Amino acid sequence: MMTARVKKLRDQSLKAVPSISGERAGLITEFYKSPEAGRVSPAAAHALAFKHILANKAVVFNPGELIVGERGPAPKATPTYPEVTCHSLEDLRILDSRPKTSFKCDARTIALYEKEIIPFWRGRSIRDRMMAELPPEWKAAYAAGLFTEFMEQRAPGHTVLDDKIYHKGMLDFIADIDAGIARLDFLNDPEALDKRQELQAMRIAAEALILFARRHADKARELAAKEKSPDRKKELLEIAGVCAWVPAHAPRNFREALQAYWFVHLGVITEYNTWDSFNPGRLDQHLWPFYKKGLEDGSLTRESATELLQCFWVKFNNQPAPPKVGVTAEESGTYTDFALINVGGLKADGSDGVNDLSFLILDVIEEMRLLQPGSMVQISAKGPDAFLMRALKIVKTGFGQPSIFNTDAIVKELIRQGKTFPDARDGGASGCVETGAFGKENYTLTGYFNIPKVFELTLHDGFDPRTKKQLGPKTGDAAGFKSYEELYAAFQTQLRHIVDVKIAGNALIERLFATVLPAPFLSILISDCVANGKDYHAGGARYNSNYIQGVGLGSITDILAAVKTHVYERKTLSMKKLLETLGSNFSGREDLRQTLLLKSPKYGNDDDAADDIVKAVFETYFAAIDGRPTVRGGKYRINLLPTTVHVYFGKVTGATPDGRKAGEALSEGISPVQGADRKGPTAVLKSAAKIDHVRTGGTLLNQKFTPQILADEEGLRAVCSLVRTYFRMDGHHVQFNVVTAQTLRDAQKHPEKYRDLIVRVAGYSDYFLDCSVDLQNEIIRRTEHMGF
Amino acid sequence: MTPTRTAARPESPPGLIFDVKRFALHDGPGIRTTVFLKGCPLHCLWCQNPEGIAPRRELLTRSSRCTRCYSCVAVCPRKAVVKGPNGGPVQLDRSKCDLCGKCIEACAYEALAVAGREATVDSLVAEVERDRLFYEQSRGGATLSGGEPLNQPDFAAALLSALRARGFHTVLDTSGLAPWTVLDRVAAEADLVLYDLKLMDDARHKEFAGASNRLILENFCRLAALGRPLHVRIPLVAGVNDDDANIRTTIDFLRPLPAVRRIDLLAYHKGGQEKYRTLGQENCFRIFAPPSVERMEALRRAFAAAGFAVTIGG
User: ipTM of this model?
Assistant: First the structure.
């Protein structure tokens, strides 16, 4: 049972209203206006700015908490990052008033923006500089909704920590940095100066975090002196002791390990508004030695460990994703910041990683029932069924967590990309489903790619009917294609072209971040930035991958299958007629729409007529992207996930030959088109496993079950078998949404009764009420496998 | 994918089936694929698969899906499909329909469909094969249900035998109403038999299931005597067979048979109603009610007390 302390902290977190805090924006502007900012390297400037923020921001202690530190001046008071995105006054007003994922913004903050922030950063923020540099064809494709751009409002993050902070404190990192500086060879290394500047910046950033922790120690002593309750006084003095030790030194026990991580986490999300916040990754593995030792020497009990973990959980929930506007808000319309705790999996030596703490963490997840942090279980062939069954028992409560991942597929994916076995096994999945070598890789997601929209261009000779612009090459009048093969070849040409436009834009954006806004603090944490003397943004990490996330795989498959069947095989529909009908959004041709919808092969039914197409599209997308070089010296890879972008991409895509009307959502992840799968879950899993997951960096499959399926032991065992079989076929991830459509409809009607209703959206869970109405409807439509 | 090579054998004649359901969780152990054979000698008034009763193909009319476009009326060569009165949904004169299927092809809305298709043993084995990995993982397999599989004994035996030869665990779900030689021959090809017992009183069995239960019970005893795996399934309908007398008689009947240790109690549900309508047999449908949750639990306890392993499901 939750202790009174945890209950209070959890309630406080749930009740806190997200707001915008001008604290960070004010401090960073103050620093960049100072003469010092102009005298040092860009890396050192940002490190000094980081230090200025941590030296001056409010130190927050919430009543009763055991793990301390907030990013803002209060829970859910969310900073902005004007050096990345300088919000306009209009942006702030929209953030304040929009119905979903709003952030209260008070008059003082607006005034600060008007007087200080906007005048200084307008034109100087990386977003403004990016927009000034990007070519018109990129802008036209972006405006058409062919792809999105992740770094448009947020800095690259897309990384997760390994175990290094549990062995080393910031002082140890500083010693490594100093040794690196001492080793520099100015005689032979033309980059020696850049390296020194970068390493000096890292040193400043490490000192800044120690300073921030010491301020918490001071504050704890100050509060203790005033504290009347002897129990709390003792706790505060303990906190003071912990914060005086970590993160300067390596943690000595379970509690210090959690606090050390939390300071590091705050450092990363204060330095930048990184995508996928950051997260401790394999928490059960990292904490296991501390947990075991604590139980052995009597300094820790199962109960005290649980309470500490629960306090730690609340801290994540107090930090909403930094505010997003425009297309970025559409592609990721959520407060969740994608900290995905990994539980289970394998150890670096290849043995089973599931331990007692793995189970204890699942207990914490079940009891806390918080949006953040997200959680997932890694299921390896070596892991016990009991662990998967325990996870499914949480899934069946309808909370959408934990999501379920295939460790063996993750390892294969990483090995294919060139990682070593130990690095691969120490890795996992983060964000939604993205594979990474934790603590050693920059695996940046660069943007979503609208595959069905590319087909729309193909049908119109490269022209976009919505924005009325020629966006792709002229591949010919679709009515003139004599065979499906000719049509498909044109589609491939269009796709390759749009990928080129995207990659050229990425190159420019990446270079801007590397040169203008380095990330010295994050660089300390990710191997081998220190050893290379190179920034995380500039390719300092051991492994560097860029992803372009394909969206609408189910939709494009059904689209191509319908055209192939009716236009080229049965010849019951001419291309001309089809184009007219699509142009009119099926107006007056509901019969034709139904024919396309009901009498065409559909992905998700284990039907090779459709599934051969999904394989072909996968290969086309893979060939257009995989292996291409990035400016950071890494490689491009693909993954297949949507967050919430399938709704936005649907809005910008006209009627499609699979019977989808203009503006309706596309399919999400690698799931079938909503309602197209009619042969049950085994058929869906078979279809989904026909693409080669091992050559991706993650795929996302959603399956919705009504609670009845998982009601008894027999049902749980059956679902356990579904998962195991999918994973045997190299499936990467599967998530089960356990709610009835009736429940969801009721939630739309009576929102007040369903404030805590968390549903699986795509690669993450969200409060149902925080989803847009379109997204809510789409979740309701997703096939329910009832009555099996 | 073929673990057991079977010698070339002549293609057996096709059977008539009305559904193949994957991820079936309640027709035997594990994840299964269930093949539903069409045709049944019983006419249980609560039947939930009425499209499985007639031993021939039948046209289904789903009036709720009909948009009154009447494209089907235009293509019907025998004028069996006609416009409904006052612009209503299409109607079917079943005496004229020869199931040519032209109307189904013409309808864009799936308002017309056929229950029943001919399927060969090989094609069904291939369909079952699709989920092999799921059966292996869950210790599942394939089940023959219906209708009444024993109504097509050669086909049922050939299908079970072919499935077994490929290494699948096989289940026969039967009402037991067939000559003993038929039951014996088909059941011999199954790894497990699920045997339905509905009502012990013969007069009531005739009234509610449309036939005497004498052969069913006789066959049951003979099958049980063979000692092969055998589970009893009892579909429970409030006021029809959930009374103490029927339950007590059932227990007394089963107790002396050592082969029978497991009983599945299946509560009635109303799933069949819409199906009767699509078959044009609204008149045949009677609404029943399932026993209450408490009553089901009491029945479970009664069987458990008599030494049986009991599950509630279905």
Answer: 0.92
